[in-house]
Amino acid sequence: MVHYIRFLQPPRVTRLNKDGIHALLSTLLTITTDLGDAFYPGDTIVHSAIFNGTTMRSLDMAHWKPGMRVLKIEAKVPLDFLRLRARFLFTCNGSFEIDALQTERLPNIISAWTEEFSHLDDLDTDMTVRRFRVQGGRMLEICEENGDSMARHVWDGGVILAAWLMDWAELGQHRDITFTVLELGTGCGTVGLAFGIRSDCRLILTDMDDDALTYARHNARRSRATFNSVWECSALDWSVPDRLKLDRPLDFIIASECIYNPDSIPDLVRTMSSLVRRSNGLKEGLPQPQIIVSTKVRHSSEAAFFDLMKESGFDQNQHVSIPIHDQYRESIGQDLEVVHIYVFQKQIEVLSSRDNDDYDGMDVADNKQPALALE
Predict the structure, then answer these.
(1) Which end of the chain has less neighbouring CB within 10 Å, N or C?
(2) Helices and strands (DSSP H and E) totals, the chain
(3) For the segment 184-242, what is each residue's pLDDT rounded down to a tens digit?
(4) How confident is the model at residue 172 (pLDDT cuts 50, 70, 90)?
(5) What angle do CA 118, 123, 128 make, to 5 degrees?
(6) What is the DSSP letter of 371?
(7) Distance (Å, rounded) from C-alpha 161 to C-alpha 52?
(8) Above 80 in pLDDT, residue 95?
(9) Buried/exposed 52-79: b ≥16 CB within 10 Å, e otherwise
């Protein structure tokens, strides 16, 4: 199980220390799961540091003990570091290494960074930054909300899928192709932007939550220095998928942690069928779009997704199970949690006979919202 350092009270530099050469940093944080439904049960040290782009300065450390829910940190900050562009780091990695985005090296506890600031008044208290080191020394930076919204947080299934994409042989075989990739339920954009780092492509990041799209746009803009992919964001309501305009065929459709809600599964499968049908209509003779889905099973009702995909004519071409490394669980003999990754593709022989929006069991009420188009 992955845990995340989260700010309950964002970092603030509250006053000058009496010595005249330091300021005082204070924050309240917790270590919790992606959904915030459980706290880290083990024993660990949380290190605080400040980074000015070239130099990392350790500030202090605090002890997180089993049973804790909140940890207070206060640390002296050298004033000379605050005169340059800098950011704060809170991590359980005493060497202050940036978290590696690799399935076998993902840390048990994901570090928390602040946004970079050049003046204390610029210190953003609304967001937490997750920084991951990826291929070729590049960086994936994902800002997430400090609040309680699940749609604007990083999820385990997204992090694991992003890491898996970095090594997926299918992408390595086609380095000369610019893919068109559409992500459903993008949230903060973790998976789509990781795809854009792994392979130059045209990204279409979609979500039905406008605030989530705000974070996805923010993260895409800050990724410009990391990849050559082009991107766009659009609202997409799965109950009316045809209102999203497509202007070119899709190569991949990706969806991470999107099947946990059984009520939305029929609309999700209907949306996937709509996208594949309309993609095929733009240019005949191309390979069928591949659909990549990741999930950390949270409810038995998720099985309905796989039944509907089969009924809709999708073949499951690949299934990978990735255990989430967890030192605490291993130490007490508990089973590791697993993220499952599936790759689907439409059966060619059923494209015309089964690919429609009105098959049994998936009727959706008419929605009179205005049409949505790509920005």
Answers:
(1) C
(2) 8, 18
(3) 999 999 999 999 999 889 999 999 999 999 999 999 998 877 788 999 999 999 999 99
(4) low
(5) 120
(6) P
(7) 31
(8) yes
(9) beeeebebeebebeeeeeebebebebee
For residue 316, count other CB atoms closer than 10 A to its CB: 14
Q: Are 234 and 204 in contact (CB under 8 A)?
A: yes
- Give how far Cα 363 sits from Cα of 266, 270, 307, 311, 356, Å: 8, 9, 16, 14, 11
Q: Which of 347, 85, 339, 355 is nearest to 242 (CA)?
A: 355
Rounded (5°) CA angle 88-89-92: 160
Q: Are strands 338-346 and 314-323 parallel, antiparallel or unpaired?
A: antiparallel
- Residue found by looking up tokens 């970095």 in the block: 166
Token pair in block for residue 40: 């880290």
Burial class (CB in 10 A: 0-12, 13-18, 19+), 373: exposed
CA angle 307, 310, 315 (to 5 degrees): 135
The answer to whether the beta carbons of residues 324 and 341 sit under 8 Å apart is no
- Residues 252, 345: Cα–Cα separation, whole Å: 10
Residue whose C-alpha is closest to residue 184's, from 132, 251, 244, 253: 253
**Residue 279, phi-psi category: left (phi > 0), alpha (psi -120 to 50), beta (remainder):** alpha
Strand order in the sheet with 22-32: 71-78, 22-32, 3-16, 109-110
Q: What are phi and psi of 142, to 5 degrees?
A: -125, 120
CA distances from 109 to 105, 123, 258, 313, 334 (A): 11, 24, 23, 40, 17
pTM: 0.89
Report the distance separating Cα 80 and Cα 99, nearest Å: 27
- The residue with tokens 């689907």 is 344
87-91 and 112-113: which strand pairing? antiparallel
Confidence of residue 175 (pLDDT cuts 50, 70, 90): low
Which bin fits 17, alpha (ψ -120 to 50), beta or left (φ > 0)? beta
d(CA 293, CA 160): 11
Contact 148, 126 (CB under 8 A): no
Amino acid in the structure at residue 209:
D
